[in-house]
Amino acid sequence: MSNHDSTVVKIYRGRFAPSPTGPLHFGSLVSALASYLDAKKRQGSWIIRIEDVDGTRCKPSFSKQIIETLHSYQLISDEPIRVQSQHSDIYEQHLFELKKRQAAFPCNCTRQSLTQYNGNHPLECQSSISKPHSWRLKASSAVYQCQDNIQGTLLFADDLKSNCPVLKRKDGFFSYQLAVVVDDHLQDISHLVRGADLIETTAQQLHLYDLFGWTPPKICHIPLITNHFGDKISKQNHAKAIENGHLETLLRALHYLKIDLIRPSSIAEAISLAIEAWDPSKLKEIKNLPLEEQDLHLI
Ligand SMILES: [Zn+2]
Question: Per the database record, which ranges form the Glutamyl/glutaminyl-tRNA synthetase class Ib catalytic domain (predicted)?
Fold first, then answer.
């Protein structure tokens, strides 16, 4: 079993990496704040990365809008913003590495055929290189564990056995899984603070780190803000855009991070008080935070 608790103290480098498939919504503001506050509380750097590898759903106009909204809340990248769609050649090189190590296989299964074969890939799929195909990560019996400062010990025992995530799609676009691992490594990201919905991707990412021989960042997962159906607030369920630079919205977002400030006079003041007050242990083992009645208008 691989235990990814690095004892080497690295300089803290955190990031927020939105996908520009819509404007920034309340749930993403909470995530952005958590990663920012954690970085700044520990005198680290915080960078923004635009995860727009999915060329069918991402739009440059949303990237611009998201960055403007983040800036209006004083969440400003310490370094130039990396835009993933400009780096496909790098993901291609890393996919090539995985192919060389026989850790990836071509697949032309459809969702329908996968259902028919109970999620297994028939032999003809794996020899499908002449037809349009995706590239998937091979299944593995590797077991991973990570020490999440918020969620506690996360053990991933079976996650990779029957799950072969797509690394590059049939239409030529790279997947989030490959791009995020490559970029976090290339940008020397030391800490990830992200939503609990991403726990399910963690084993696949740790496995990619292992295959490349890289040390993964320390990862912790903040609770998800959920709507009254218990679903994550997301663009998929039509969460609306938040207003730019709205102090009350910021205070409500901080409230879900267990920071309740008393009448700060400006966004700048609220952010600096929030950095002092940030204490992730207050969120311990909480996976979901239902949106409170007074905040329903925000989603
Ligand atoms: Zn297949």
Answer: 13-245
Question: Does residue 135 fall inside a structural domain?
Answer: no
Tokens 């003809």, residue located: 124
Question: Rg of the Cα trace of the chain?
Answer: 20
- Find the 107 Cα to ligand 1 centroid distance in Å: 4
Report yes or no on 164 lying in a domain. no
Query: How far away, in angstroms, is 134 Cα from ligand 1 center?
Result: 8
Instruction: Give me ligand 1 centre to Cα 109, in Å.
Output: 4
In a domain? residue 251: yes
What's the structural domain count of the chain? 1
- CATH number of the domain to which 249 belongs: 3.40.50.620
How many whole angstroms from 146 Cα to the centroid of ligand 1? Answer: 30
Position 277 in a domain: yes
Quote the ligand 1 centre to 126 CA distance (angstroms).
Answer: 6
108 CA distance to ligand 1 middle (Å): 5
Burial class (CB in 10 A: 0-12, 13-18, 19+), 256: buried
Determine the Cα–Cα distance for residues 253 and 260; give it in Å rounded to an integer: 10
The string of pLDDT tens digits covering residues 21-74 is 999 999 999 999 999 999 999 999 999 999 999 989 999 999 999 999 999 999
The rounded Å distance from CA 130 to ligand 1 centre is 14
d(Cα 244, Cα 24) in Å, to the nearest integer? Answer: 10
Ligand 1 centroid–CA 218 distance in Å is 32
Of 101, 111, 108, the closest CA to residue 122 belongs to 108
Domain extent, residue 196, equals 10-85+178-298
Write the burial class of residue 97 (CB in 10 Å: 0-12 exposed, 13-18 middle, 19+ buried).
Answer: middle
